[in-house]
Recover the amino acids of this structure.
């Protein structure tokens, strides 16, 4: 099994119930022949499957020289994508044998797309925790950290008794939805009555 297939399997697991994942074979065909282990996938929000989605390029390399080929591929893919999809282009790169310094240097360069780089297949889960595919709940990563939104809701409920679990669920659903800030605020504010605290 190619390593990009293992990475893709991990991405699909993380995307479950949140994103619809599809292979974007035409973008993978743009790669130079020297790169054998690459893949391109498209992730669209499950709640909004007609959206443009996010394009994620997966690549595995083991030589520094191959980074230039990956970079050229990323540039070509970006040129092929319509606006505004160019702003939702990501590269997940397994750079086997690369130093932490080289991985960090590649990741820091956001030319063409946002990059996430690791030197070990075993580190892919922690790498994905730094992406939009990060687990939504602390229980998924085995920690006892409190969800900051839930904590804020509980402290708000103490000051405003009307902010019941039903209201919290309504607000949370809207926060996790696909609305941007300018569209989200009116939805939240229209549910608030100034008399509620009276």
């Amino acid at each position: 099994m190619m390593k990009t297939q293992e990475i893709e399997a991990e991405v699909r697991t993380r995307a479950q119930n949140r994103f619809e994942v599809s292979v974007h074979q035409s973008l993978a065909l743009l790669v130079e022949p020297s790169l054998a282990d690459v893949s391109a996938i498209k992730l669209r929000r499950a709640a909004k499957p007609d959206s443009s989605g996010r394009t994620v390029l997966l690549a595995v390399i083991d030589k520094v020289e191959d980074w230039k080929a990956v970079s050229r591929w990323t540039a070509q893919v970006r040129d092929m994508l319509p606006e505004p999809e160019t702003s939702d282009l990501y590269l997940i790169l397994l750079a086997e044998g690369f130093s932490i310094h080289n991985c960090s240097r590649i990741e820091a360069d956001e030319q063409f797309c946002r990059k996430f780089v690791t030197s070990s297949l075993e580190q892919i889960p922690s790498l994905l925790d730094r992406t939009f595919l990060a687990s939504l709940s602390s229980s998924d990563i085995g920690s006892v950290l409190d969800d900051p939104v839930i904590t804020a809701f509980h402290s708000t409920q103490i000051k405003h008794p009307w902010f019941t679990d039903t209201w919290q669920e309504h607000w949370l659903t809207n926060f996790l939805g696909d609305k941007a800030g300018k569209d989200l605020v009116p939805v939240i504010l229209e549910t608030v009555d100034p008399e509620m605290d009276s």
